[in-house]
Amino acid sequence: MPPGSIPVLLIEDTPSLARVYAEYLKKESHAVISVETGADALAQLNDGAPKVVLLDLQLPDMNGMEVLKRIDAQALPCAVIVITAHGSVKAAVEAMRYGAYDFLVKPFSADRLVVTVRNAMERLRLAQLVDTFEKDLNRARYHGFIGSSLTMQAVYRIVDSAASSRATVFITGESGTGKEVCAEAIHRQSQRAARPFIAINCGAIPKDLMESEIFGHVKGSFTGAVSDREGAASRADGGTLFLDEICELAPDLQTKLLRFIQTGTFTPVGGSKLEKVDLRIVCATNRDPLREVEEGRFREDLYYRLHVIPIHLPPLREREDDVLEIARHYLAEFAKEEKKGFTSFSPQAEQALRHYHWPGNVRQLQNVVRIVAVLHDGDTVTPQMLPPPLGAPQPPVPAAAPVPEAAGAAPAPRPHVPPSPDSIKPLWEVEKDAIEDAIAACDGNIPRAAALLQISASTIYRKRLAWQAEGKL
What we know:
Elements: E1 8-11, H1 15-26, E2 32-35, H2 38-45, E3 51-56, H3 64-73, E4 78-84, H4 89-96, E5 102-105, H5 110-137, E6 141-142, E7 145-146, H6 150-163, E8 169-172, H7 179-189, E9 197-201, H8 207-215, H9 232-235, E10 240-244, H10 251-263, E11 265-266, E12 275-276, E13 280-285, H11 289-294, H12 300-306, E14 309-312, H13 322-338, E15 344-345, H14 347-355, H15 361-375, E16 380-381, H16 427-441, H17 446-453, H18 457-469
Helix pairs in contact: 2-3, 6-7, 13-15, 15-17, 16-17, 17-18
């Protein structure tokens, strides 16, 4: 039987008729399973596989209606065609109330049988497609994604299709939409799932160290290279290499990456031995890659090498009520982590979440929920607990009434005294002090500090790495 074909289960206790019907169907290349009793028919149906069933109501061990009722009760994926004599047409019509697709009155021609079976088979295939589509619509979780909106169902289906391929995937989307989550979903859905998933943020690593991060280096190849180091390409051998913020790569490294993609080989920094790996590359950016190409910042040939299967992640504001699903998920997670009693959002808080435009997307929503869990407690999150700009604005502190100079005279404006130049700090130093103070206040917990500062934890890690490289930390 060809893969994916639907067999015909013929339930007929008269051997001569069974052979005739089987021959009719085999001429149309249908696979036929023939049984004579209801018990044998039920045994064949136990596997739950889709079938077109030709059912004679008069069987030696039971009434065929019992077989039909069993198919209906268990919602088996079958299209049932009842075979009946002239005198039992009423029974056949009754059978259709239990889900029978059609009925044939004996005697019938080969053409009538073939056409009825063909139509039943097509109906069964359509029902399977509808069932698959409905299951897709009900996917509220997909690997690391949360959300059942139609836009995300489309993303899940693209990932399903792309995962089995070896082709390079190019993920685009605004910051915070879950590009790394998408890359991990592709890896976990693929045949490489048991092998490593290695992620590199091309914007978080100093440009002079980027080549070593990807391809590794040998001892003594540059100052600080005190030993051989394996790069991400070697660590991802057999698995997936994810290059986030790919448009941040320096032009000379873009050339080396292009050669690596074309040949699957590379040479570590300072080395002379050519190494070969088998991996899949998934890359991502929050920029418009075509504009980067047009403005000369990204190689056109590299773009077309990477941009084989495009996946665009929609912003949170275009994902219908996914914002509430995600918020509830993180509320439960953070409430447990912070040992708080939150279980739900009030209708007014849900309204505020639903109507906010979320420029920071899922990452911003995650930070908002974490702030609520850290700073408040209770059973229900109210609008007053949401941080600005979602929550209710705080009333301004009333200023002290000025003493009038004379009755009826307007108060004299206070002169603005500018600070002295010596008291002004560089902006990076102000930013560094704020970040380090927040980390200290949170006992070294960088994700919590990031949530209170309303920035992503990766931003803190990236800035600290840059400060350390410049000797400012």
